[in-house]
Structures are given as C-alpha cells and as structure tokens.
Amino acid sequence: MSDCIFCKIAAGEIPSTKVYEDEAVLAFRDLDPQAPFHVLLIPKEHIASAAEITPENSGVVAHIFEAAAKIAREQGLEKGFRIVNNCGEDGMQSVQHLHFHMLAGQKMGWPPFPPQKEAE
Ligand code: AMP
After folding, report:
1. Relative to the CA of 64, which of 22, 71, 77, 113 has its CA 20 to 30 Å away?
2. What is the set of active-site residues?
3. Residue 118 above 80 pLDDT?
4. Which residue's CA is minimally distant from atom 15 of ligand 1?
C-alpha cells in the first residue's frame, strides 16, 4: 500500500526505532508512548485491520505473538505486559495497518474505557 505509513516504516522509507525485526514482523517504539515501554508490532505485509484476518493471512498473527514473547525476554519484561489491538472506528484504530500495541513497565488499568452511563 503506497500511502500506508506503517508499510513505509516496514520498507525503511520512514525512520523508526526498531526493537525487533525478522522476515515477516517489525516492532518499533510508538511515537506517543502510553506506558514506560510501548512498542508496536506489525506484519510487514499490508493487512488493514484485525477485521481483515483470514485463514490465508492469520499465520502472521501467531508470528507476531511469538515475537512479542521474544521481545519480553530480551527487554526484561518479566513482570508482564499488555497487548492491545484497536480495530475499526469504535476500537479507535487510527492507522489502517494491523498493529498490536505492547505496553509494559507499570501496572495497567482495567477496564480500558470510561464506564458507560446506564440508559435511563
Ligand atoms: P491506533 O490508534 O491503535 O491505530 O495506534 C496507532 C499508533 O501509531 C499510535 O499509538 C501512534 O502514536 C502510533 N504512530 C503513528 N505514527 C507513528 C510513527 N511514525 N512511528 C511510531 N508510532 C507511530
């Protein structure tokens, strides 16, 4: 996808701070970190969102989670981490290339959204 920012990062056309890379997956630091450790894991191939995962391309998702476990070992995240995928408009996805946020370095909050007011 020629106009996709994460495709450009995967191709090395836009700089990023890489944390992990192999033939199918890239992990790089988020520009606007929401935790002491915040990286994005992306497939190098363009998949627009989690809603576009199919039997043909789902293998890369397992590959991404393997990469996350490797990153956790390498970066000393033994206290744990959170992986988040935002999908679509309600999921507040802002970049239309599948990515997983890997957050660590503090205790996370739950739930990840403000409580909804009950309808009267
Ligand atoms: P989302 O809102 O789930 O689509 O997440 C997109 C994420 O990409 C946000 O956390 C942004 O801070 C991050 N982001 C956007 N552009 C870049 C970039 N060039 N390098 C690193 N992170 C970026």
Report:
1. 113
2. 99
3. no
4. 31
